[in-house]
Design brief:
By secondary structure, the chain is α/β, with parallel strands linked by helices. It has one domain (13-481): Alpha-Beta Barrel (TIM Barrel). It has 16 helices and 16 strands. It has helices at 20-23, 57-64, 73-76, 80-94, 105-108, 119-134, 150-156, 163-178, 199-203, 215-240, 262-284, 289-297, 308-314, 364-378, 404-422, 471-481, and strands spanning 13-17, 98-102, 138-144, 185-189, 245-251, 255-257, 319-323, 328-330, 340-341, 346-347, 354-355, 361-362, 382-386, 427-433, 453-455, 467-469. The strands form 5 sheets. An 8-stranded parallel β-barrel has the order 1-2-3-4-5-7-13-14, surrounded by 5 helices. A two-stranded parallel sheet has the order 6-8. Helix 15 links the parallel strand 13 and strand 14 (427-433). Helix 10 packs across helix 13 (308-314). It starts with 12 loop residues before the first strand and ends in a 16-residue tail after the last helix. Bound molecules: 6-O-phosphono-beta-D-glucopyranose. 6-O-phosphono-beta-D-glucopyranose (BG6) is lined by residues 19, 22, 146, 190-191, 251, 323, 386, 390, 433, 440-443, 448.
């Protein structure tokens, strides 16, 4: 192979990224407690008014009292809990160097505030890591990916409460100690900035339970608690695990000005500042001045305790990881707002970009820009831990699945990664989102598919759960084999007519 001569460094971590609540299922098995993700019901597309991520306090009580008759797709997901051996074997066949998973906190501490961990939950992840390591797949583990033990939400209102710092630290210490010889790469919070867009998803917070405070105020308070918790986890990881690397994780929403009007330039800069606030804190170890002013002018008071600023300063992350799916565009020059976008942010349409079936604006060059921008701002190693195309796939009569659109999307993004690396960006790895079809976060659908591996299940939860390889499976295998040098279609890819 071309390993001495490749753009990506030797040991580049190619792989895929998943989250426990979107793949595992088995929501009440082996002592697992309920988590916030188990409460998100399926809403058919024509009845949906927005994204199906937020849940209200009353609804949770109704669910627990069996007063509703809804379906909760993440409770069963794709049953990875029982099928992980088959799935890991398929990832190994593609040549994965790493697999990003998350630990479901409620498997380890069913109520979140328990004193002792649940051994069956710990054993599951032991088995999972052993299975990965058997194939030389390095685990990359997120401690908290869009789920909080439900009891922490009901009793304390999730991350709005400072108490969560202690519970999370206990959880982190438990899993660091248990897996110290198996897991070297850790991420503290998935897309930590999402707490300001969906406090329930990002922080297990029910905003209606905090009277007289704006949702923004509540969310930034929760974020502060997560910053402190993340710093404590980073400290502990370095004390417990030899050669550990701890990363933050941001949903990077690179935002462009629509025109060169100075007001547009400033608006785009402001949006980027809001987004990069989270990495500013976790990488530089302090709140940026620009946000202090923003808080003041928007009547946001983040309550800090003595020592918080110090711990954040002392324990910044070792690397920056982020998700990148699209870019956004903003303007002060028209009324046109929120035309497109996702759960995270509104954006006006960029006429130079195509959009996915779900309206996300596809912008590979934006990834190059984003990488360079991160590099210039922080000079730290970068890791793309989510990128991919959610699309409808069709199974042919012979069972094959031709997904050239997915190959195109990924190829174009990897090409731009190469350009950034040539420009000096220090890139550790790339994990494509959803290497196997899984349950969507924003819509709870199965039909929004990202995988190289197809899973036989529809939006209503019907199907055999059987796994099969898409054309992109063979393509990604070749990409990994050549360390990203050969991005062309493989002979095994059957291009649809
Ligand atoms: C990221 C999340 O926001 O985007 C993932 O970290 C999520 O959990 C992914 O699945 C894609 O979003 P969606 O809504 O298409 O599932």
């Amino acid at each position: 192979m071309l390993t001495n001569d490749t753009v990506f460094k030797k040991g580049f971590l190619w792989g895929g990224a998943t989250a426990a609540n979107q793949i595992e299922g088995a929501y009440d098995v082996d002592g697992k407690g309920l988590s916030t993700a188990d409460m998100i019901r399926f809403v058919p597309k024509d009845e949906r008014t927005g994204y199906s991520m937020d849940v209200k306090a009353d609804y949770i009580e109704d669910v627990l009292n069996n007063k509703v008759n809804d379906r909760f797709p993440k409770r069963t997901a794709i049953d990875f809990y029982h099928r992980y051996k088959e799935d890991i074997a398929l990832f190994a066949e593609m040549g994965f160097k790493t697999l990003r998973i998350s630990i479901n906190w409620a498997r380890i501490f069913p109520n979140g505030d328990d004193v002792n961990p649940n051994e069956a939950g710990l054993q599951f992840y032991d088995n999972l890591f052993d299975e990965m390591l058997k194939y030389g797949i390095e685990p990359l583990v997120t401690l908290s990916h869009y789920e909080t033990p439900l009891e922490l939400t009901r009793k304390y209102n999730g991350w709005y409460s400072r108490k969560l710092i202690g519970f999370y630290t206990r959880y982190a210490e438990t899993v660091f100690t248990r897996y110290k010889n198996k897991v070297k790469y850790w991420l503290t919070f998935n897309e930590i900035n999402v707490i300001t867009h969906s406090p329930y998803t990002g922080g297990g917070i029910l905003v209606e339970n905090v009277p007289n405070q704006s949702a923004e105020q509540i969310a930034y308070q929760g974020a502060h608690h997560q910053f402190v918790a993340s710093a404590f986890a980073t400290k502990l990881a370095h004390e417990i695990i030899p050669d550990v690397k701890v990363g933050c994780m941001l949903a990077r929403m690179t935002t462009y000005p629509v025109t060169n009007h100075p007001d547009d330039i400033l608006l785009a800069q402001h949006k980027n500042d809001l987004n990069l606030f989270f990495t500013d804190v976790q990488v530089r170890g302090e709140y940026p001045k620009v946000m202090e002013r923003y808080f003041k002018e928007n009547n946001i008071q983040v309550v800090k305790e003595v020592g918080d600023d110090e711990i954040i300063k002392q324990y910044p992350v070792d690397f920056i990881s982020f998700s990148y799916y699209m870019s956004l565009s903003v303007t002060t020059q028209s009324e046109e707002e929120n035309v497109l976008g996702n759960m995270i942010a509104g954006s006006v349409k960029n006429p130079h970009l195509q959009t996915s079936d779900w309206g996300w604006q596809i912008d590979p060059k934006g990834l190059r820009y984003t990488l360079q921008d991160f590099h210039n701002r922080y000079g730290k190693p970068l890791f793309i831990v989510e990128n991919g195309l959610g699309a409808h796939d069709k199974v042919e009569e012979d069972g094959s699945i031709h997904d050239p659109y997915r190959v195109d999307y990924l190829r174009q993004h990897i090409e731009q990664m190469k350009e950034a690396v040539k420009d000096g960006v220090d890139l550790m790895g790339y994990t494509a989102w959803g290497p196997i079809d899984l349950i969507s976060v924003s819509t709870n659908e199965m039909s929004k598919r990202y995988g190289f591996i197809y899973v036989n299940q529809d939006d209503e939860g019907n199907g055999t759960l059987e796994r099969s390889k898409k054309d992109s499976f063979y393509w990604y295998k070749q990409v990994i084999q050549t360390n990203g040098e050969d991005l062309s279609s493989t002979t095994k890819v059957k291009v649809s007519q």
